[in-house]
Amino acid sequence: MAENENELLSLRGRSAIVTGGGRGIGRAIATELARAGANLIITYRSNSSLADAAAHELRALGVGCQTAQADVREGGDLERVVKECQQTFGSVDILVNNAGMTNDNLVMRLSEEAWDEVMDTNLRGTFLATKAALRPMVRARWGRIINITSVVGVTGNAGQANYSAAKAGIIGFTRSVALEVASRGITVNAVAPGFVQTDMTAGLSDEQKELIKGRIPMDRYGETGEIAPIVAFLASDAAAYITGQTVNVDGGLVMT
Ligand code: NAP
């Protein structure tokens, strides 16, 4: 075991997969993992140019970084990414299930397609990537899985029944998998951001934004760079004894 705090926080020699790492919160997470020394595969669904730009920036930090196209709704895509990570960097140590989407409506107007799409991307995608990454982690008897859920998975949110159900599902999934693999040196935790300025929240009207801001004790939205450090910490040896937890990073919103 490393002797000082810096060594415990270092991810040098580790390999990480960040789904949806090309933009938004995923990009900030990938940057923080790279700063700690991890080699990375960042996946994207359709936005290859943003992912390529992110990978270029990450390589400038002195780590290996590749992009991979993968739809998290497709198990085969995720198995290919895991194999690619093993072949390129020799291991799969860290998985960050970050890819996600919303498709909001009041439940009476919510289409079955919008329900399925949001459940499949957020919840099923987290399951499929976890299943693919666990095999090499179990073999190595070391692994870190960090699932990005949301404050609305804890509190609920009118107009987001599909999204909050998927994100609540991720919290239950996190705890169950944590129990299954606790004895194998693998930890599984979740991070629940509050409202963060990304493309996902850019579509909210000014009125909705003001309404949400009024409920946040810190009276402001979060920045992507404020979500990333806890993910890097949970991925490190310093967090070896933490598993099955959901860490809220939301300016106090979950308490209101
Ligand atoms: P974002 O800017 O909209 O980025 C979403 C990312 O997910 C993109 O990289 C996108 O890939 C990827 N993605 C979406 N569907 C995918 C699919 N089917 N397969 C593979 N990748 C897919 O969102 P964000 O705000 O950074 O959100 C990141 C995570 O944080 C999500 O899980 C979200 O639910 C969660 N979160 C966000 C907030 C917030 O306020 N922003 C709050 C709580 C939780 P492409 O670039 O290729 O499209």
Explain what the structure shows.
With 256 residues, the protein is α/β, with parallel strands linked by helices. The chain has one domain: 3-Layer(aba) Sandwich (Rossmann fold), CATH 3.40.50.720. Helices cover 48% and strands 14% of the residues. The chain has helices at residues 5-9, 24-35, 48-59, 75-89, 112-140, 152-155, 161-181, 199-202, 206-215, 224-234, and strands at residues 15-18, 39-44, 65-69, 94-97, 143-148, 186-193, 246-249. Strands 3-2-1-4-5-6-7 form a 7-stranded parallel β-sheet, sandwiched between helices. Helix 2 packs parallel to helix 3 (48-59), helix 2 (24-35) packs across helix 10 (224-234) and helix 4 runs parallel beside helix 5 (112-140). The longest helix is centred in the middle third of the chain and has 29 residues, at 112-140. The termini are far apart. The relative contact order is 0.15. The model has no long low-confidence stretch (mean pLDDT 97). Bound molecules: NADP nicotinamide-adenine-dinucleotide phosphate. NADP nicotinamide-adenine-dinucleotide phosphate is lined by residues 19-20, 22-26, 44-47, 50, 70-73, 98-101, 121, 148, 150, 193, 195-196, 198-201.
